[in-house]
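Q: Got a minute? One more chain.
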Amino acid sequence: MEKIKQNPIVKKIGFNRLVLICVMILMYLMFGAVCAMMGRASFFTIKRIFNALNYAYFLGFLALGVTFVIATGGIDFSMGPVMFCSALVSGYCLTQYGVPLALCIVISILVGAVFGMLNGYLVAYWKMPSFITSMASMMLAKGLGSVFTKTQSVSWPQITDPVNGWYRKLVKITVGDATIPTGLIIFAVISIICAILLNNTKAGRYITCLGSNKEAVRLSGVDVRKWEALAYVICSMLAGVAAIFYVGSYSVVQPGLGDTFNNEAIASCVMGGTSMAGGIASIGGTFIGVMIVALLQEGIRAVGLQIDYQYVVTGAIVLVAVYADIRSRKRRN
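A: Always. Here it is, folded:
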């Protein structure tokens, strides 16, 4: 095993990431084999891949955001409802008040930023536990989204809308018989930007160091409150971005939802190598983790099982990932 880990290619990719890629490939082959044995429609189709990707885009932005928060040693359970609140508020402005679509996209991100500033301020400056703060923000986001839209669902324009349908091209573009997954390109680019921010900038290094030893960082003269608050702002702003990709894939947004996506986003981070104790984070691992969760969701649907089975499998994966992280920390210590 140590020889494999010391291989130059493996070291460059990362052993944990390589394992995740192998798991994803095996899952894909397994679902394809099960569908074939059950006589169901083939799993090895472009349509299945695009269905999984539609789920991966918005989930991916949520997971990228919460990676920053978990790196500080905190947690954010409000990102899913914040995503829905952003989609509801901006969509209602578009459909009911005639606000230009480009401005509505900005409004979606700003709504997320406001929740991020609230969470960051309460956690970093008021020293409130991130668990309690984010739970309160989760309820606040669900309530505000419902109140703003008068408890009505919001339907975003279809691609056939000549004025406002262009936002759907952020998810995919059809050229003749070919479909270009523009959402995957944008998600990959933003993932690279997040990786650079987390690994190669002062802000990212401070955010990660907060999870390792917050007091030591403070004693070195760093304003830990500012950088800790920034992590929550980044998380919620990416939830605002996720809202645009959610409606780009599914159109209709209903008030009072979004909780379930919190667990899946956190699961993607944890299985990707981000430590729940803070101090260790991997954007590349999160990217692969998102793809695994999206593939799992589509695969369970393909074999005809209830979506509840996804929660069972995802929960089991998280337990294994957390146990592996604990063992790894013990070995390092």
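A: The mean pLDDT is 89.
Q: Perfect, thanks.
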